[in-house]
Structures are given as structure tokens and as C-alpha cells.
Automatic annotation (TrEMBL):
UniProt cross-references to SUPFAM superfamilies, sorted A to Z: TolA/TonB C-terminal domain
Protein's name in the database: Vancomycin permeability regulator SanA
Span of the signal peptide: 1-23
Keywords, sorted A to Z: Signal
Domain of life the protein comes from: Bacteria
Domain TonB C-terminal: from-to ranges: 71-128
One Pfam family this sequence matches: TonB_C
Organism in which the protein naturally occurs: Mucilaginibacter terrae
């Protein structure tokens, strides 16, 4: 079994972006370009929570190209829509042409996610921009 067949998530660091996590102490703010809120009262939640998210991610994360150089961190950004679906999946700060096999596989897996519990602003359900950093380590038991 090669090194890449046993990838596991050792941490989901900063579940969501820091602005969203701190949003309970700030006013809601909307980003016109993203068509989503970046600060909310209550961030979106994956069904079953963080542990269930990790199980889903690594149940579905499969590398097809094991000749690539190992990448230990993959940041994935997306918008959790008002109905809980995920849209606008991308790797922040990277052009699609520069996506690694790890980036592409993380995006593929996240496109399979079930609906989330959407975020809220002033008690109203709103679309929320969310960033999920992933730390990957070869041969680590999850």
C-alpha cells in the first residue's frame, strides 16, 4: 500500500474562516462579489458536526495520481446557500490551471457533500462564504 492510499485528516483547523468564527461579536457583513455573507451570527453547520465531516471527507477522498508530490494542506472555499447546498467551490488564491491533484480531489469530494444547516444573520437564513482548511498527513490513522 503506497503512502498516498492512507492519507488522513489530522485536523480541520479553523472550521470556517476566522471572520465567520468571530462573527458572533461583529455585525453581519455581505460581500457583493461573492453574493454571500462573510460575517454572520451563526455559521453553517455540517450535518453531524466536525467529526462527521472528517469521516465523510476521508471516506470519499481517493487519490488517482500517486506520482505527484505530497501536499500537506488544502484550503477549500465555498458558499453554503440558503437551502444548505454548496456552491462556488474553489481553492482560494489559486488559478484553476494551477490546481494540484490534491486540490482537485478535495473539490470533487466536497461537491458530493450533503446539505448543510445554513448560516443566519439577525435570525434570517443567508448564504455564507466558508473556508475549510485541511491538514493532510500520509499514513496517519484517523
Amino acid at each position: 500500500m503506497n503512502i498516498f492510499s492512507k492519507l488522513s485528516l489530522i485536523a480541520l483547523v479553523l472550521f470556517g474562516n476566522a471572520k465567520t468564527l468571530m462573527a458572533q461579536k461583529t455585525a453581519c457583513s455581505y460581500d457583493e462579489k461573492l453574493k454571500a455573507y462573510i460575517n454572520v451570527d451563526q455559521g453553517p453547520e455540517y450535518p453531524g458536526g466536525l467529526a462527521e465531516y472528517g469521516r465523510f471527507f476521508f471516506k470519499n477522498f481517493k487519490l488517482r495520481d500517486t506520482t505527484s508530490e505530497f501536499q500537506s494542506r488544502v484550503n477549500v472555499a465555498f458558499v453554503v446557500m440558503k437551502d444548505g447546498t454548496v456552491s462556488q467551490l474553489h481553492i482560494p488564491g489559486k488559478n484553476k490551471a494551477k490546481y494540484s491533484v490534491f486540490d482537485k480531489e478535495a473539490l470533487r469530494v466536497l461537491a458530493l457533500m450533503p446539505k448543510w444547516k445554513p448560516g443566519t444573520c439577525n435570525g434570517k437564513i443567508v448564504p455564507v462564504y466558508w473556508v475549510m482548511p485541511h491538514i493532510l498527513e500520509p499514513n496517519h490513522d484517523f
